[in-house]
Amino acid sequence: MVKICCLGAGYVGGPTMAVIARKCPSIEVVVVDISVARITAWNSDQLPIYEPGLDDVVKQCRGRNLFFSSDIEKHIAESDIIFVSVNTPTKTRGLGAGKAADLTYWESAARMIADVSKSDKIVVEKSTVPVKTAEAIEKILTHNGRGTNFQILSNPEFLAEGTAIQDLFNPDRVLIGGRETLEGRKAVQALKDVYAHWVPEDRILTTNLWSAELSKLAANAFLAQRISSVNAISALCEATGANVSEVAYAVGKDSRIGPKFLNASVGFGGSCFQKDILNLVYICECNGLPEIAHYWKQVVKINDYQKSRFVNRVISSMFNTVSGKKIAVLGFAFKKDTGDTRETPAIDVCKGLLGDKAKISIYDPQVTEDQIQRDLSVNKIDWDHPLHLQSMSPTAVKQVSVTWDAYEATKGAHGVCILTEWDEFKQLDYQRIYDSMQKPAFIFDGRNVVNVEKLRGIGFIVYSIGKPLDSWLKHMPAVV
Ligand code: UDX
Ligand code: UDX
Ligand code: ADP
């Protein structure tokens, strides 16, 4: 029986391993993590992450061929294939601060693997890492190992949060990069055999190590670029009277462009896009390609611009001040169907409003108050000026309250900002919300979820990203 061990029981490692276990009953899969609390949660009824369909898959396999454990060294030693799915945040200090990936967790994982391995291992890079990391890891393993053979593979994960289980069951492609040696090819085949349990062969792509590593960064950069492109057009739509939904639909009908991933928004978030692009930027800079670095940097800059444009729109619409006004924020997660708040645009929008002394009342169906308070009180480093800390005063954070109900959040508010596209925000009783709000009542829809005409009919002044402006907003000072 093949045994797989996965280091890192996070958003990627947990669901991916659960699906491998579900699809490969003949393989034993153990997920390990240095966080005992995480492992305890994976073994409980309250899984540490919210992901539609995940509970069912875990319930079907846990205790059968899927295990979660803190006994890291034992399971590493016993495994044939080791997936490494530890976190790779952006470096916050030192060389490359603000852009380069922090590989501390990766390096310590590799050293530990070298230390405890007594039999040959296939080590699979699952977390997104800079191109050529495999080479560095290979060196750590071979220089610290005890004569065992290590084959390194790059097998980047393309799942998106909120649809992780669907994506894993039915991936567009599985990508496996390996060394072009006999041993390397054997290792690629061994991993291919795992996926072949449920993924059609023509969707399993094999490449060299560097192509696989770079494909992941490139795919995320392309996806994020589409959003920054449509968001850039959204600003122009507001200025000209075009409608971004109509424009995106017309553009996406070109089969060379395609219809997906063209929703204008308050900005993209999530743990991957910004981090991976900045990583790409850093790699370009290190390889003497400043023009290419500059090109990709613009994708993140437009995203930052889109968030501050939204904040400016809110403030300028409400007579140029939100000081002391109650602003309801509906949605805090970086997208619907997840409780994840990493790099969510809501953090920057809330901080922007708090900077103008607003009182904020937040409702999100999946994000806890603790998480929101933590996110808003953490000082972020400015990626473009890494010595700069964007800090939030403790008094500003006190202006935040978190509710478990959209009606409670909006009661008595001067304005409502919709920052995540949760389906339930489409079904809210907006007449009831309008009746309970201060007048004039404003709605700023950062996700294009509401029916603008209907809400204007109720009496709201509505701003929706990239949509023709309300006559009210047209007469307010220009947003820059
Ligand atoms: C992304 C990639 O899609 C996935 O392949 C990769 O493995 C990890 O990074 P994820 O961050 O989970 O996945 O979610 P995704 O659906 O890509 O959304 C990222 C952000 O873009 C979200 O904030 C989302 O709201 C935003 N977005 C997405 C838009 O603003 N408009 C769109 O049209 C699509
Ligand atoms: C383009 C648009 O495709 C068309 O829809 C519009 O109406 C007019 O402009 P055209 O300029 O005739 O059409 O040719 P196109 O096939 O788009 O190629 C434009 C240039 O891009 C060419 O120099 C082509 O060689 C280059 N190209 C195209 C690439 O370098 N790589 C590609 O993948 C595709
Ligand atoms: P991702 O979104 O990439 O899955 P997460 O932050 O959700 O990232 O998960 C990464 C997990 O890896 C965390 O639970 C963290 O505790 C774990 N981790 C980090 N370093 C190690 C290590 N050396 N051994 C085992 N687990 C680790």
From TrEMBL:
Organism expressing this protein natively: Apostasia shenzhenica
Q: Where is the active site?
A: 272 (nucleophile)
Output the InterPro entries linked to this UniProt entry: 6-PGluconate_DH-like_C_sf (IPR008927), NAD(P)-bd_dom_sf (IPR036291), UDP-Glc/GDP-Man (IPR017476), UDP-Glc/GDP-Man_DH_C (IPR014027), UDP-Glc/GDP-Man_DH_C_sf (IPR036220), UDP-Glc/GDP-Man_DH_dimer (IPR014026), UDP-Glc/GDP-Man_DH_N (IPR001732), UDPglc_DH_euk (IPR028356)
In the UniProt record, the gene name given for this protein reads: UGD4
Membrane-crossing residues? none
The record's Gene Ontology biological-process terms are: glycosaminoglycan biosynthetic process; UDP-glucuronate biosynthetic process
What does the similarity note say? Belongs to the UDP-glucose/GDP-mannose dehydrogenase family.
> Under which main EC class is this enzyme filed?
oxidoreductase
Recorded protein name is UDP-glucose 6-dehydrogenase
Q: What is its EC number?
A: 1.1.1.22
